[in-house]
Amino acid sequence: MDLIAELGRLRLIPVITLHDATHAERLGDTLLTAGLPCAEITLRTPAALDAIRRLRQACPTLRLAAGTVLTGAQADQAMDAGADFVVSPGLNPTTVRHCLQAGIPIIPGINNPSQIELGLELGLSLLKFFPAEPSGGLPMLKALAAVYPVRFMPTGGISADNLGSWLAQPSVVACGGSWLVTPELLTAGDWTEIRRRITAALALCGR
């Protein structure tokens, strides 16, 4: 899988924390019908791996990521559950080496030059800029992109108000966003509002 090409086509990845795996099937259907066939399910809840399994079974065409992956063991579990790739909040060389050796695509998080240089040393060309807004926002990203030959997936503080500005940067492949599918909307079963947010966001992506 050419991950950069895939994310460049999608432009937007919903970052989702699921507390109830039984929401997975309806979530997958909503994402597909709204025109955004992807999701990053964070491993922050006991329901996360089961949700990934359910999504993979119910919606095999979804591009699925496991987020908040902190260890190689978690990466293995995520892939066994059906994830296509994993995302980490930071750059742990041990976790990255494990994934590379196992053939698991990984996007680790960085927010400074030293971390980018470590990523380059490990052979990575796509990194998560996280947390994007608290780490200096667009000015910081532009400064980093001017120096290093890498592509970025900014996540953290991205919203409908600033998505267009982030995506306009040539170094940005796609953005991760948690405002699209919040735990509150999932608990309320407000699929109409989730679909509305996705539709509005895709318009900002030019899709």
Automatic annotation (TrEMBL):
NCBIfam families registered for this protein in UniProt: eda, PRK05718.1
Matches recorded under InterPro entries: Aldlse_KDPG_KHG, Aldolase_TIM, KDPG/KHG_AS_1, KDPG/KHG_AS_2
Pathway: Carbohydrate acid metabolism; 2-dehydro-3-deoxy-D-gluconate degradation; D-glyceraldehyde 3-phosphate and pyruvate from 2-dehydro-3-deoxy-D-gluconate: step 2/2
Family of the protein in this entry: Belongs to the KHG/KDPG aldolase family.
Database matches in Pfam families: Aldolase (PF01081)
Catalytic activity, EC: 4.1.2.14
UniProt entry keywords in alphabetical sequence: Carbohydrate metabolism, Lyase, Schiff base
Subunit structure: Homotrimer.
Enzyme class: lyase
Protein name from the UniProt record: 2-dehydro-3-deoxy-phosphogluconate aldolase
CDD domains registered for this protein in UniProt: KDPG_aldolase (cd00452)
GO molecular function, one term: 2-dehydro-3-deoxy-phosphogluconate aldolase activity
Reaction(s) catalysed by this chain's protein: 2-dehydro-3-deoxy-6-phospho-D-gluconate = D-glyceraldehyde 3-phosphate + pyruvate
